[in-house]
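Side project, low priority. Logging it here so it doesn't get lost.
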Amino acid sequence: MYAFTFHQPTTVRQAANLLAKHKEAKLLAGGHSLIPVMKQRLASPAAIVDLSKVEGMSGVELKGRSLVIGAMTRHADVANSTVAQQALPGLAAVPGSIGDPQVRNMGTIGGSIANNDPNADYPAACLGLGATIITNKRRIASDDFFTGMFSTALEDDEIITKVSFPIAKKAAYEKFKHPASGFALVGVFVSKRGADIRVAVTGAGANGVFRVKSFEEALKKRFAAKSIEGMSIPVAGMNSDIHAGAEYRAHLVGVLARRALAKA
C-alpha cells in the first residue's frame, strides 16, 4: 500500500470535517471494497476516515411505518435482527445471502449502498422498497440516489448515517449467485406497498441497479407471478461479461422476478 494517514473520529461531524479538510480522503466502513483496491494499488487515498468508532450509526429499529437501519450496521446484524425479521422479512433475508460469514460480519449496509457495486444486493433492496437514504446533510430518495455504476448522488463530504425502509405489505428478493464471490449475477427485489409496486434489478444492467417499469405496470392488476408470465425485458442495456451474456441476464430477470413474486 501507499502511505496514508488514518483517522478515527467519534462523531459524524468530526468525520465530515475530516472529509472536508482532506479532499482525497476515503471513508472506511466494512472495508471489503476499499482495502482490496488499496492493496492492489488501484487506489491511493491520502487519508482514511474510519467510521467504526462513530457513535449512533448502528442498530435496527422500527419507527412508525418504517424500518430504520444505521449505516454502520453489519450485514449479519440485519439478518439476525428480530425487529427486521418481523417488520420486513423480505429485507431481513437479503444480507444472509451476501458473500460469506467473514463478509457478513464486517460488511455494512451503508458501505454497500455508498459503493453501489453493480452486482451488490442492497441497492436492489433500496430501490425495490423505495427506501430513503439519510445523510449528515439531507434525505435522498433511492430513485434519485443510484446514478450509475459505482456512482451515487452523494457529495464529497456527505456521509450516509441511516437508511429508512417503508414497511411493505409484500416483499421478497431472489438472486442467482456467482458461485465464487456470492455477488448477484442477477438479483430481483419485488415489493407491494399499497398502490406502489416495485421491481428492482441488480447484477444485470450495464449501468447498475434499475427498475423494470413494464413488470410494475403488469403487477398493478395482480401482484402475482402469473401477471408477468411470458414477459421479458430488452437485451439492450444488459451487462455482458465472462460470467454471463446480455441475453442470459435478460432471461434471468424474468425468471427471478417470478420466483420472487411467488416467495412474496
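Brief comment: The chain has a mean pLDDT of 95.
Revisit when time allows.
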